[in-house]
């Protein structure tokens, strides 16, 4: 396996496919998944001559199930460690959901200051902030995320099955074409990771305020979001993020769910390719 060990001793697994000299695309996965969630996109872009990289976040997939560090600062530092180990430059960073927050935090804190990044893509992403606060009165109540924690602690396997078979892919919508294979793959990825990492990660994706990160990013940024996203509501995320970024394009997908990279991969891959090549 390809792994690096970070400064705090955490082993991070990553995939690195394609020519070493090709333009790199780094993919950041969502909670509680792994780099495997990007297989469709990685195969698509490696076949078109790009170098594609995806890592398992600490506590997720094949990376170390460490007790601490399940926050955006550590997530971004872990990405920086992988990027610097591979010496990636002129890189496009693509993040989904929690990975969208991780990508934005990495770009703002490391990638843009180091001159390593050319573009950013956030898909169904959590920025600027999900939870309801005094400064974000339209956010989701903290009780929503407390319920996530309660369900995870009580029966993680059942909770993950419910998320994958219901709101994540929109399989709870009338006339939706549910896929047992997609549900099982989501569940498989989730159960590979550590319960504590996933439990702590709920706070990381819901309570982190990315406002300053977004305001500092000057690179071309594509925001992709389905307007039937039941996990990260578009009005609380993409619409607001678009207003904070200096050079952003917002692309809204009518009726698409949170997991649209899987359910509508052909469309998402095409639009990603257009933005990356443009």
Which helices and strands occur, and which strands form pairs?
Layout: E1 3-5, E2 11-17, E3 24-28, H1 39-46, E4 51-55, H2 72-86, E5 91-96, H3 98-111, E6 117-123, H4 142-165, H5 180-192, H6 195-207, H7 211-216, E7 221-226, H8 238-244, E8 248-253, H9 260-263, H10 265-277
Parallel strand pairs: 3-4, 3-5, 5-6, 6-7, 7-8
Antiparallel strand pairs: 1-2, 2-4
Domain AB hydrolase-1: 24-261
Protein name: Non-heme chloroperoxidase
InterPro entries: AB_hydrolase, AB_hydrolase_1, AB_hydrolase_fold
Q: What is the name of the CATH architecture?
A: 3-Layer(aba) Sandwich
Across the major sheet, the strand order is 1-2-4-3-5-6-7-8
Computed over alpha carbons, the radius of gyration is: 17 Å
CATH topology: Rossmann fold
List unreliable stretches of 5+ residues. Answer: none
**How far apart are the first and last residues' alpha carbons, in Å?**
34 Å
Share of β-strand residues = 15-25%
Biggest beta-sheet profile: 8 strands, mixed
| Structural category | alpha/beta
Helix/strand order: EEEHEHEHEHHHHEHEHH
**CATH homolog superfamily:** Alpha/Beta hydrolase fold, catalytic domain
Helix segment count?
A: 10
Mass-distribution shape:
globular
Percent in helix? 40-55%
**What is the highest CATH level, the class?**
Alpha Beta
Number of strands: 8
Number of domains: 1
Mean pLDDT: 97
What's this model, at a glance?
The chain is built from 10 helices and 8 strands.
Kindly describe this structure.
Helix 2 crosses helix 3. The chain has 10 helices and 8 strands. Strands 1-2-4-3-5-6-7-8 form an 8-stranded mixed β-sheet, sandwiched between helices. It starts with a strand and ends with a helix. The protein has 278 residues and is an alpha/beta fold.
């Amino acid at each position: 396996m390809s792994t690096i060990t970070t400064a705090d001793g955490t082993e991070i697994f990553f995939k690195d496919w394609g020519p070493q000299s090709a333009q790199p695309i780094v993919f950041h996965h969502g909670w509680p998944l792994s780099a495997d969630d990007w297989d469709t996109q990685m195969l698509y872009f490696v076949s078109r001559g790009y170098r594609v990289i995806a890592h398992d976040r600490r506590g997720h997939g094949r990376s170390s199930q460490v007790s601490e560090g399940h926050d955006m600062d550590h997530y971004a530092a872990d990405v920086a460690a992988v990027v610097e180990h591979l010496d990636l430059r002129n890189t496009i960073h693509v993040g989904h959901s929690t990975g969208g927050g991780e990508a934005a935090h990495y770009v703002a804190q490391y990638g843009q200051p180091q001159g390593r990044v050319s573009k950013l893509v956030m898909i169904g992403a959590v920025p600027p902030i999900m939870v309801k606060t005094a400064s974000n009165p339209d956010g989701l109540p903290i009780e929503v995320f407390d319920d996530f924690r309660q369900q995870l602690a009580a029966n993680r396997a059942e909770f993950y099955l419910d998320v994958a078979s219901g709101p994540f892919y929109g399989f709870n919508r009338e006339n939706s074409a549910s896929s047992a294979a997609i549900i099982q793959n989501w569940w498989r990825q989730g159960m590979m990771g550590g319960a504590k990492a996933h439990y702590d990660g709920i706070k990381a994706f819901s309570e982190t305020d990315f406002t300053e990160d977004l305001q500092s990013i000057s690179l071309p940024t594509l925001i992709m979001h389905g307007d039937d996203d039941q996990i990260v509501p578009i009005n609380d995320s993409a619409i607001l993020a678009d207003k904070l970024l200096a050079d952003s394009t917002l692309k809204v997908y009518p009726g698409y769910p949170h997991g649209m990279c899987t359910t509508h991969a052909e469309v998402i891959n095409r639009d990603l390719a257009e933005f990356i090549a443009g």
